[in-house]
Amino acid sequence: MSTGAAETDTQAANAASTSGVTVSSLEQTLKEKLGAEHVDIEDMSGGCGQAFNAMIVSQQFDKKNTLARHRLVNSALKTEIAAIHAWTPKCFTPEEWVKKQKEAGP
After folding, report:
1. pLDDT, mean over the chain
2. Does the global pTM surpass 0.90?
3. β-sheet bridge partners, residue 54
4. Quick check: 89 and 73 in contact, CB under 8 A?
5. What is the mean pLDDT of residues 40-60?
6. Phi, then psi, of 24 in degrees rounded to 5
7. Per-residue pLDDT averaged across 72-84, rounded?
């Protein structure tokens, strides 16, 4: 009887080595579900898809505090987040993003 769980340490290691989540799949989902104008995602796990940092710019963040923005993103990526180990989003409105870019300089 198989429960769908890994039956050996090797199977468990292979299953854990990749989440199936990619930078492009995260970008596409954020653009579709949040109307994100700019998405910059970095795979921090060396390519295995277990840890990501994200910079997300969306008008939907307007008039929302940081917690509300993160909840909105996490809701949009519920399935993906369940498959990965670490997710760190930074969320900006388009106006905040322009200001941040100007502060960063050329």
Report:
1. 86
2. no
3. 41, 89
4. yes
5. 92
6. -65, -35
7. 94
For 68, the 3-state DSSP assignment is helix
What gap in Å lies between CA 90 and CA 53, rounded to an integer? 8
Cβ contacts of 24-33, under 8 Å, gap ≥ 24: 25/80, 26/52, 26/54, 26/77, 26/80, 29/76, 29/77, 29/80, 30/54, 30/56, 30/58, 30/73, 30/76, 30/77, 33/76
HEC per residue, 9-47: HHHHHHHHHCCCCCHHHHHHHHHHHHCCCEEEEEECCCC
What's the length of the chain? Answer: 106
Write the CB contacts of 19 (distance below 8 Å, at least 6 apart in sequence).
48, 49, 50, 83, 84, 85
